[in-house]
Amino acid sequence: MPLKTLFLNPPSFENFDGGAGSRWPATREIESYWYPVWLAYPTGMLEGARLLDAPPHHITAEETIRTCKDYELLVLFTSTPGFPGDIRLAEAIKDANPHIKVAFVGPHVSVLPEKSLQEHNVIDVVCRKEFDHTIVEYANGKPLEEILGLSYRKNGSVVHNADRPQIENLDALPHVTDVYRRDLDVRRYNVPFLLHPFVALYTTRGCPAQCTFCLWPQTLMGHPWRKRSTDDVAREMAKAKEYWPYVKEFFFDDDTFNTDLVLHVARDYRLRHSQSHEGCRMPPPDRRL
After folding, report:
1. Fewer beta carbons below 10 Å: N end or C end of the chain?
2. E-strand spans in 101-233?
């Protein structure tokens, strides 16, 4: 059996929109929350795991600390603005449950794994970049030195194992909507330019562009573009419509939503007689194609 694992988008400070699903951490005049898509994938891969998205569900630090008493492994998605508070929360969790292992994931620790481990003993391991399989292998007890993408301490020094190859077969990953249904309340998520309620998911990973302002390709998923099959995307969307008949919009929160994939998914999805609004992020057509 794997370690009993809690995947956590931690509680944060008032009016802060950030954490596991936010592309642009910022303070806002209204509540705005993105889905913790990155955490949902490995949650669905580990038996007995749970996803706790504290901010949209208004779960306090005190409630989070109590919840963590029942777990053996905490996987905390951190961001640069929230990192100091996340460290304090992790320390309080370890004080209440000294045997819990703490793994940090996310852009901040992927860019600064050595500094994060050197300066903060509460962090046991850092899972760099795409952490789906890295954290699953850790939870299943694989020897540390054999886990690609892992950073950890050994004999007073920080060890960085080789990077893990990027996931090529995205269809092999679980559907995040199954985790959403079990662990989240989709009505808690609100983004001003999307219909409410909405469901966000990824159909691709990676982006070949080199935009310096963009978070995910530079820090987590890399630039090689990989896509799920249109059949797999259509199955998940149809299933989500059954789970939540009241959902008004599916949002493909991809970095680059390729035109060819758009046409195939739209055609396939219409065959399933669904009536909903779809949104995506897509660049202008490239005349070279």
Report:
1. C
2. 101-105, 125-127, 150-154, 157-160, 198-201, 204-205, 226-227
